[in-house]
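The following block was generated as part of the benchmark described in Methods. Ligand: cobalt (II) ion.
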Amino acid sequence: MKELIRELTQAFGPSGSEAPVRETIDTLIRPLVKEVRTDALGNLIAFRPGTGSGKRVMLAAHMDEIGVIVTAIDDKGFLRFSNIGGVNALALIGTRVVFAGGAAGVIGSEPVDELKDLKLEKLFIDVGASSRAAAEKQVGIGDMAAFHGPFQDLGDRVVAKAMDDRIGCAILVQALRELQDSPHHLIAVFTVQEEVGLRGARTSAYGAEPDVGIALDVTRVGDTPKSRTMEVSMGKGAAIKVKDASLICHVGLRRHLVEVAKAHQIPYQLEVLERGGTDASSIQMARSGVPAGVISIPSRYIHTPSEMVDMADVRSCVQLVVKTLEGPIDL
Ligand code: CO
Ligand code: ZN
């Protein structure tokens, strides 16, 4: 599974520029499902019919990642940029970025007196060009770049850029591989533009008409030195979301996920995330409403080039997805 995580995290796909990662996932899932299509926004939607009279279950993992977009190029060849999703200026200094075409750059900063003055407009990307003309040979206005964050295997834990949410994509692919028979009609959606407002989930949930929706995404943890209080910890199992800033999970579905975890001795923890949102909120409010919940992967250093997850948690999430799909879902 580590190889799958490596492949998915290293694929390119800032919000709105998901074509490369979509191609990677398409190749991986085609043998596992009956039908695959891409909708108008770019969501990759896979169908797998159930063996019984189960529910229409939509599983969503977003394939887009945060990044930056070029807004201006100066005479010396330095690029100014804006954010794609939630990027923190503090995490950017010295970070390398990579463009779709392969060009790379380093993020530098103008001097600032205080850290609070460190805003994106003080930062620039240096692509190694000494003039505007030279820079324009490599990049143009509106080009997007992703963080450079190689996959590293730390043993029990792994680290890479874009673990948010390629780890959710990896869990969904692995669950499709391991799932034998399911009574449910499965709609596996690799969504676009989550990081800029849960957009792909909205259109795909409308089209999929699910009876139940489950999103797979990362959540933060409270187990690093002096971190903000939060009950979720690395290595303590799949996090079953109760609430975040974007949704209150369907109570029946949340209870059901807990029951499945207990019945199969899958380690789990309950998650209340005070900030942040997930695709489940768009799914929940599709059409006249859909019971929706989230299986979250505990993660450290979210929205930096070095996002970390625990392999035992990843395993627990795969099992929880598979076991949930194998049995009846009565809410
Ligand atoms: Co995110
Ligand atoms: Zn995410």
